[in-house]
Each structure stands twice: as structure tokens, then as C-alpha cells.
Write a structure and sequence with these properties.
Length: 367
């Protein structure tokens, strides 16, 4: 059975298929569009005085594809502020007013456009068309939900149009927006308002640190405090500790590092719930290493402005995603790669009388 190109937005992690947002019945209720230039480059802010007319069904469907098909590999974020209170976030306030009263879309979209223009001072920020839309018919986490979309299109593409006139053909060109790639987008779901809503974000341009104004300055978002992000963050913490910090604190071989990484990912694959105490006893084991790990955890939290819970439900989707970054390969010069998947006791390291290093591997069957 075939489905249309804008039916379902999914998250795919390896062979794991995780449906996040169902947009098969999505519709645009109303939409506003403005033009946001770059102040530093002397460009204008042009504000519309009326909502966009989308009575044309073809235009409506193309806009749906343009806005929603791009949210295929996203994670839930939430609005925040410097003090952690999402209600202090100006975008949160504008969005909340639209959710409360849809008729305020135009004036609130003007407020958003002005806010974006005030922040568009970095020389790398491109000008572009700025859209704010209200969507209905979206299903998230199995429940129908209203959503507000905030989008910016920065890159125009040239296209050719062939016209036939009185038996002859004429070729014209123009610049336009490609509906296959959205430069910047934000979909705010009317869920979990008290913690800053559930927000999905993409940013396909201006990826340099200096130009991260869309996520950091304009939207002011952070990952949701859910099982997916808790699992993802802890696995990232484990990987960084074993690879970067542990060799500084202890004399440890590459095989022992790989073994600890394998045991860490195995714990997350086999357990339904994470417990710091249980993880320390069953995976890390050595009391000195446990204390070193806890110290690094505090440093990791401070550097990333995170607060990692010591107990949470493990997300299978996050485990499958992070599993790709847990390398179990022992590289020996440029000649050999040894893949170590478990049973550290079956591999030994030594030096022969001539000073050559070697590994001795024990096995039962050769495949």
C-alpha cells in the first residue's frame, strides 16, 4: 500500500522504527509570512499586514510538505530561560498567546519577526522569509494535538519555466524556495506547557558556533528531561569518561577500555531502569574508578549545564542510537583491527624476547 509523501514523520535509529508524529491528517489553519533581513548588512524587516491566503489546495499541500516533511530526525526539546523558567522565554509567551487565542496569530507573528530581526546581527546570518503557522490534525505520542510552526527559509534556488506561445517555446527563469529542504524550523506541540512545551527543531544552515542564534538566542531551547535524553546523556558520559578521563586517572590498556565500554552498553541494553548505584557495582566495580567516575560526572554536568538523574527508565531508542558511537575496535598499527565484543579474559597482551608487542586470543570455533 502506498502512502503520500507527507503522511508520517518518523525517527529512525538503526533498525529501530520509532513513530513520533503522525501528520496524515495535518492541516494548516492559518499562516503569516514576513521578511527578516540582517541588521548588520543593512537589510530590512518587512512585516505583512494580513494573513497569507492559502485557499488554493495545491499551494496548501505544497506548504504542508515544505513545513512538516523536514521533521523526520528530531528529538523533543523544550523552551527554557537563563533561570530555567520557561515562562520568562519571550517566544514561549508569544506561542502561549496563540494557543490561547488563534486570532492573535498575526500580531504575535509580528512580535516574533521583530525578535528575530533584533537578533539577526551576526554577519553569517542570512535574510529570508519568516513563516508562523497554526496546524491542526497532528497526532503526537498517540494523542491529537494542536501545533504552531515557526519557520525561516534562507536559501533561494534558481529554476527554469518553459512556456509555449503560438507554436513557439519560451524559457524563463526565477528564484524560489525548494519545498524539499527547510532551512530552519520549529514545531511547538501544545503538550507539557508547564515545562516549556514539547518542541521539535531543525537548523540546516549556519552551523558554526558563532551563528547558532536560531536555537540558542531566538528559540532558547534545551533537551526535554525525559528517558530518551537521560539515557543518551548517560551513555555519552560513559563513553567520554572511558576514552578521555580514565587514561588520565589510571593506567589502563585499550582492551580494558573497550571491555568497560562493552559492559556499559550491555547494561543499558539489558536493563529497563538505570540506577547509578547498581551501574557502579555491576559495571564499574572498582571503588577507586567509581569515585573517579562520579567526579567526572560532576565536571560533565557543569560543562554542559546538565543535571543527570541517578535513576530513570532506559530508552531503547536512545540505546540504539548511541550504540553506534561505542567502538569495540582495537587498531594495531595499520595492519590489523580486532573487534572485541566481550569476554575480556580471552585476550592477553604481551611482549616477546625481541621486544615485539603481541595479543594472544583464545577461541573455540573459527567461522
Amino acid at each position: 500500500m502506498q502512502t503520500s509523501s507527507h503522511e508520517i514523520v518518523n525517527i529512525i535509529f538503526g533498525d529501530y522504527f520509532f513513530t513520533m508524529i503522525d501528520i496524515i491528517n495535518a492541516e494548516i489553519k492559518s499562516i503569516a509570512v514576513h521578511y527578516c533581513g540582517n541588521q548588520t548588512n543593512g537589510e530590512e524587516l518587512i512585516l505583512s499586514k494580513s494573513l497569507l491566503n492559502i485557499d488554493d489546495e495545491r499551494v496548501n499541500q505544497l506548504l504542508l510538505k515544505f513545513f512538516l516533511n523536514n521533521f523526520q530526525h528530531v528529538e523533543y526539546q523544550q523552551f527554557t530561560f537563563s533561570n530555567g523558567d520557561p515562562e520568562m522565554n519571550i517566544l514561549f509567551q508569544y506561542v502561549s498567546k496563540i494557543f490561547d487565542q488563534e486570532s492573535t496569530l498575526l500580531p504575535q507573528s509580528v512580535n516574533m519577526a521583530r525578535q528575530l530581526y533584533d537578533l539577526s546581527t551576526h554577519p553569517q546570518i542570512k535574510s529570508g522569509d519568516f513563516f508562523v503557522a497554526i496546524f491542526g490534525g497532528i497526532v503526537a505520542d498517540g494523542l491529537p494535538v494542536e501545533a504552531i510552526g515557526i519557520f525561516k527559509s534562507e536559501n533561494k534556488q534558481e529554476f527554469l519555466k518553459v512556456d509555449k506561445k503560438q507554436g513557439a517555446f519560451e524559457v524563463k527563469y526565477d528564484d524560489g524556495i525548494s519545498i524539499n529542504k527547510l532551512d530552519k524550523g520549529c514545531l511547538v506541540l501544545n503538550i507539557s506547557k508547564a515545562t516549556g512545551y514539547k518542541v521539535c527543531v531543525i537548523d540546516n544552515t549556519n552551523k558554526s558556533t558563532d551563528a547558532q542564534y536560531w536555537k540558542n538566542d531566538f528559540l532558547m531551547i534545551k533537551p526535554c528531561n525525559d528517558s530518551f535524553h537521560a539515557t543518551k546523556d548517560y551513555l555519552d558520559l560513559c563513553k567520554n569518561y572511558v576514552i578521555k578521563q580514565m587514561p588520565n586517572d589510571f593506567e589502563i590498556s585499550k582492551t580494558d577500555q573497550i571491555d568497560l565500554l562493552n559492559r556499559s552498553i550491555k547494561y543499558f541494553k539489558e536493563q529497563d531502569e538505570f540506577s547509578m548505584d547498581d551501574f557502579s557495582r555491576s559495571v564499574i566495580q572498582d571503588p577507586q574508578v567509581i569515585e573517579s567516575f562520579k567526579g567526572y560526572k560532576k565536571q560533565y554536568e557543569d560543562e554542559r549545564e546538565l543535571e543527570l538523574n541517578d535513576q530513570f527508565d532506559i530508552s531503547e531508542a536512545a540505546v540504539k542510537k548511541q550504540n553506534r558511537i561505542f567502538k569495540s575496535v582495537l587498531k594495531l598499527d595499520k595492519n590489523f583491527h580486532i573487534y572485541i565484543h566481550g569476554k575480556r579474559e580471552l585476550i592477553e597482551k604481551g611482549i616477546d624476547p625481541d621486544g615485539r608487542k603481541y595479543y594472544k586470543i583464545y577461541f573455540n570455533e573459527e567461522n
